[in-house]
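Standup notes, structure subgroup. Blocker cleared on the fe (ii) ion input:
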Amino acid sequence: MITLGIEGTAHTLGVGIVDDNANVLANVLDMYKPASGGLHPREAANHHSNVVSKLIEEAIVNAKVDLKDVDVVAFSKGPGLGPCLRVAATASRSLSLLLNKPIVGVNHCIAHVEIGRATTRCVDPMLLYVSGGNTQVIAFSNKKYRIFGETLDIGIGNMFDKLGRELGLGYYAGPTIEKLAGKGTKLLELPYSVKGMDVSFSGIMTAALNLRKRGHCLEDIAFSVQEICFGMLAEVSERAMAHLNKNEILLGGGVAQNTHLRDMVQKMAEERGARVYVPDKKLCVDNGAMIAWLGSLMYSSGVRMRIEDTAIVQKFRTDDVDVTWRS
Ligand code: FE2
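Run returned:
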């Protein structure tokens, strides 16, 4: 069975093709980069509609299949930015109707877990999902993927981007902040914002900007922001793992590329006798292959959707999904 998946929750429009053994036959993407300022949902959506046809064609060529070989069309139903989600949904509906093939709308966060499970061979992990739009600790428990901790305001990647923009580091500032942090030496005072099992980042950003106004160097600010934020995430992850008795931790989302975060999570896991898994970069960031793979799992386990069922859900919660493909 060949499944084509279209991802379009935020800045990335991705098209992936997988078979029913989770072999990724194609995985192409195009990321919207704002000319100035932050990510504007409608401009990102315009970008997505400009590139979606080209990317579908590219994926078909890369996968060495014919469009008529596609058995199922999957798309990111949510959570995400409305205008972006609508582009992926509309393209998928058109393709499904054109090919007369079934359509399955999937939860983007669960797609990160499932592509990680399939490609890193972890079995029952706790996912630390760290991206621009999302920061969540997710695990399978009692027939659903449940959120055991999450940000109360903005995603950690969004905080890095906003902070980077204010500090003149350009947009998508995570890699620049990581580089600067590597040269920082002094841990400056920032609010350690863990509230129960949840975290928050906007206060840290404000405090970091105030440190800059007080004359601290970018390197020490970046170093301190990383230490505090990653420490918070490691703490919440560790408590969730202890609570759920999980011994695997999977990283997902764009911020999972950060090597210092990986090191901190690795140390925490080693102390617990747990293992850390990280998918390949192209499967860690937002991508169409993970959407295709979750669509494939759902369809194979009997999930069917009519076109009327494919409305997007901007605040799609992971525990709204019945996990029919896992026992
Ligand atoms: Fe994501």
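Discussed briefly. The CA atoms of residues 53 and 91 lie 8 Å apart.
Next: hand off to the docking folks.
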